[in-house]
Each structure stands twice: as structure tokens, then as C-alpha cells.
Amino acid sequence: MEPIRLRRCLIVAIVAVVATALAAWGWAGQAVPAPGAPDGKPASAADRHKAKGVGCEGCHGKDEPAFVPSERCLACHGGTAAALAQKTAATEPENPHASPHWGGRMGCDTCHRQHEQAVDWCSHCHSFNFRVP
Amino acid sequence: MDGGIGKMGRRRFLGAGGAALAAVGGGLALGSAAEPEKWDETYDVLVVGTGFAGLSAAVEARNAGATVLVIDKMPVYGGNSVVNGGDFAAPGNSFQKEAGIEDSPDLMLKDMLKAGLGLNHPELARTVAERANENLEWARDYIGAEFTRLNFHGGHSVKRSVQTVNQSGSELVNKLLGKAQELGAEVVLRTKMDDLVTDASGAVLGLKVRRGYKWPDEASGKAAFFRARRGVVLASGGFSRDTALRMVHDPRLTDEFGSTNHPGATGEALLAACRAGAMDVQMDWIQLGPWTSPDEPGFGYTPQVCERIVGYGLMVDPATGKRFFKETGNRKERADAIIALGHPAVILGDAAAVGSQVVPLGLQKAMETGAVRKFDSLQGLAQAYGIAVEPFLAEVARWNGFVEKKHDPDFDCMIFPDARPTATPPFYAMRLWPRVHHTMGGLVIDKEARVVGFGMKPVAGLYAAGEVAGGVHGAVRLGSVAMADCVIFGRIAGRNAARIA
Lengths: 133, 501
Description:
The complex is a heterodimer.
Chain A: H1 2-25, H2 45-51, H3 56-60, H4 70-74, H5 81-87
Chain B: H1 4-9, E1 23-24, E2 28-29, E3 41-48, H2 52-63, E4 68-71, E5 87-89, H3 94-99, H4 105-115, H5 122-142, E6 147-151, E7 161-164, H6 170-182, E8 186-188, E9 191-198, E10 204-211, E11 222-234, H7 243-249, H8 268-275, E12 280-281, E13 286-289, H9 302-309, E14 314-317, E15 322-323, H10 331-341, E16 345-350, H11 351-357, H12 360-368, E17 372-375, H13 378-384, H14 389-405, E18 427-432, E19 435-439, E20 442-444, E21 450-452, E22 458-464, E23 469-470, H15 481-497
Parallel strand pairs in B: 3-4, 3-11, 4-8, 11-22, 20-23
Antiparallel strand pairs in B: 1-2, 5-7, 6-7, 9-10, 10-11, 12-20, 13-19, 14-15, 14-16, 16-18, 17-18, 21-22
Helix pairs in contact in B: 2-6, 2-15, 4-5, 5-15
């Protein structure tokens, strides 16, 4: 039992490392299904962007990958922070884009992480249970 | 316990003021970073933290002619200030005058020293009491923050706390940020201070930081060196969310106790200052807020309901149905009393008390989370919380007798002149269980906000303000004094850091 399990783990690990390395090299021409998404559905927000034709440069420009300014997100999503907040005004139980703390000054990627699990920043103090794409 | 932390606090005794030191224990270098060959950025003043204190410092430093960079490690600005309740204690304020309430800086100082058990550094506490109102006016008239209500907070002799229009510190934080940026201060987030950079004499030259820091990933970010030609202001807040550090100073505060604070309220910047020679004080006075609910996370909405009805309604132990402590007592006393029960307390107010004292929107939010509940009868309330009905009704009747006489011989609760017996339905109630809220201790500062080192002299080029500094509040900070403390000492620190040595 034990050795087989170890060997399986090792194989999975090697595949994961190789896949990650290839993805980092820019080898993957299309979205790489993330682990835990056996139906091939893109798992990360960045993959979904890519599937819609917005690749690395669409967000990061020609610069090396770094935090993306919110203005670049807003260029496609709403135009301005205020307009985006209007679009989500009916969200229950609160409008996530009209925080009384930060309002439109909250960076998009505070919650909408592209290369990792999205975060409901409000949940540090509130139970809004937002489903963050 | 004799290991790392104690040594870190006393690294000055290792000599070698400011030179790069070898890593000892835990992988952390004891000391400060040495001057780099090349600075990545150069400003006159560097400010660490974007709360009330840091942004107030930035505004003043800009107005004194300095170039200013403000950094914050988090992806959002404002620290605890942007999620705080927005109350600013100021004796002699215009709202008090309108309401005919007599007050004075001396009375506020007396209240602060009483709650602080006399451990407050008197010149710091006096600075806050004496300058609170002029700084409230600065926040209102110069910064443009709107204040609309006069509130009471436990431990104060009178109603003296003026609250922002949105019942949140965000009103002042956002206006301060706008002003600081309008004046030309630069503000960058996700930039974490790792160490102070000092010269051979121990004078602070700047900061070693990590740009692109992704809280809470300690492996993230790229090292860079920022030069401060004139001074560094530490306004990095307290360490209520730092369970390991708070347990060093008060081992009872395990992770069983939640915190009202924002998730970045940890002690790295404070400890980095200690490693570079700054002295710490009263670190074991850590305050729990007695007005938080176990039925919602974080600070929540409950404090804005609970704290408005103390002095109007009663708080009982659900196990006995009887009162057990002075509802208007200070935070420390009340939190200790609830913890001593071993289970959450219940506080209630009737339609008259809640209707006249609580902001309707706040009440609505607190009810939406389920933390505050509404009942048609006192019997129904008792049953919902598992309180024996008969003793509870007898206790409410007893309390109502005290309210009629405006005197509480049982616990000496302050009963307000406009308080009425708890008798008009519907009744509102909530459970209370304390959470870690404020760390009174921190870096030693003098009244010019200069950080004092283990040589008992100011550390050249280093200033601190707000919760990262200690001594202002002694054993217990009274509610609504933090905002005054942060603005007052933030401004002093910013002005002094901008001075050309």
C-alpha cells in the first residue's frame, strides 16, 4: 500500500511541476485545466480571461507580471468605479462595489485574484457570503 | 520565554548600534539594516501606515515642505481606522455646547488617568486631552470630515464623543487620504517595512522594505531600500491580531479570543523598531472590547447598538437573569466581568431607548446579521436566551426603580437624565462576548512623538504615533480617544519628522 501511494504522489507531483514550468514558459497556447477541474472547465479567473481572448498582455501589458492597476480592469468592466458599482447595485445583501469603507478606491484585485482563489475581503468582518468570480 | 523575544527587545545591549548583524534564532537579524550601496527611492519623510495617524502625519509633513511617501503592507489602505466606529472624543466641542454639557480638558484627563490606572504617561495623556478639540476642528474644517452626532462611551464622565456622518472612521480616512494626495504625498500599498536602516550611530536613515508584498505571504515581494532624508514616522498600528506576540505579553489571550481588528494588525513594524533600538512599554495591557457579539464576525454592528444603550438599558447574566456589572464601566472592567461569567452576557433596551439612541441603519444591519434580536415581550426575550423568566422580570423591575431615581445602588451605573424605564415594546437584545480590540502598549514616545530608545534618548530620525506608540492610555484606552490620539500625535510626528536636522 504505502510504496504505491508514495509513487502515485510522486508522479502527480512531477506532472504538476512540469505543467507549472511549461505554463510559466508560455508554452501553453490555451487554458490549462487546473487541478480539481476534471471537466476541463477553466478554474482560475486568469484562465477565464484567456479563454475570452484576454491573455497575459491584456492585463499586464508588456511589463513583467505585476499587480494590475484597477483602471485597466475598469476599461472593460464598467468604465469607472462608480459605473461598476451601479451595475452591481442589486446584489444581496450589500453592493460589494460600494463599500462604505473604501468605496471605489478599493483595488479590484483585493478580491478578484486572477491566479489564485478569489477572496471575499468583507468576510474579515462581515457575513455577506459574496461569491467572488 | 527567555528566548528570542526578550533578546530582541533588548538588542541595544548587544552593542553595535545599527550595524548589520548576524541572524540569531528564528532567522531574524537582530538589529537594523545597514546602509545600502544604492537607495531605490529617496524622500524627505517616510510614513509607515495609512490610518488616521499615518495620513495625518503625511498631511503635516507635506505642509511643512517635505516630500512624502506613505507605505502600507496591505492591499487596502486605512488599517483599523477605516473600519473603526468614527467617534472622536473632544472636551468642549461644539455639540456639547449646543447640548449644554459642561466639560473640560482637565475632566477628560481625569477620566483617562482613572481608566488608565495612572499608568498613562501624563504628558502624553495631557497632550491628547488639551488638544483634542482643536484637532477635531482641524479634521472637520481643514480635512473636511463630517461629524453629526454626540455620543457617550463607557468610562467618560460626560457625553463628549463626536461621531462621523457614516458612523465609521472611513469618513475621516478617505478625506485625509484625499488631502494628503492633493498636497502631493505619494501613497503605495503592498509595500512592507521589514527593517529600519540606521547608520553607525543608530540614527535612522530609511527603511528596508518589500515591494509587491502579498499579505499574508511572507515569502512574497522584492527587497528595496527607501531613504528618508529627514525622518521616518511609524504609524503601523497595534498587534491585536498577532496571537503569538499578544500571548508573549498576556498568555491568556489565546486564539480562542477573536479580534475586532483588521487582519493586518500584527506587530512586525513595532518589533523591527525594537530591534533597531526603540524601547517598548506596557505591552501587556491589551484591551478587549466588551460590546462585540459572538453572533457576527469581527467588530460587527453590535457595538454601535450596545454602546448607545448603556445608561439606558440593563445587562444581565443569562444564567441568573440578574445584572452583574456596571453597564457604563470602562472596557477593561466590563470585558473582565463578562469573561468571568464564562459565557456571553445579554444586554437589552426597549423601543424608547433604542429608538432615541441608535442610528436606524446601524440597528437594521445588526438585526440582519441576527446579532440583535427584537421581541414583543420581556418574557419572550428571556425564553429566547434561556433566561429564567421570573428572576429576570424582577431584575428589570428593580432596574426600572433605579432609572426612576437616576441612581443605581447595586453597580453605580451612570443613568442618563433622559433615560426611561425599560418597559415599552418592542425590546431589543444582543449577546456580548469580548474580542481583542486595542493594544495600549507600544513604542516609547515623548510629547514631540520622538521614539525613545534603550539609551533613554530619542532615536534620531524616528517618530511614532497612534496605536504603535505606548503610554498615552496606560492600562485602559477609553472609547473614542484613539481617534484623537492618532490625529494629534500623527500631526506632531509629521511636523517634526519634516524638520531639517
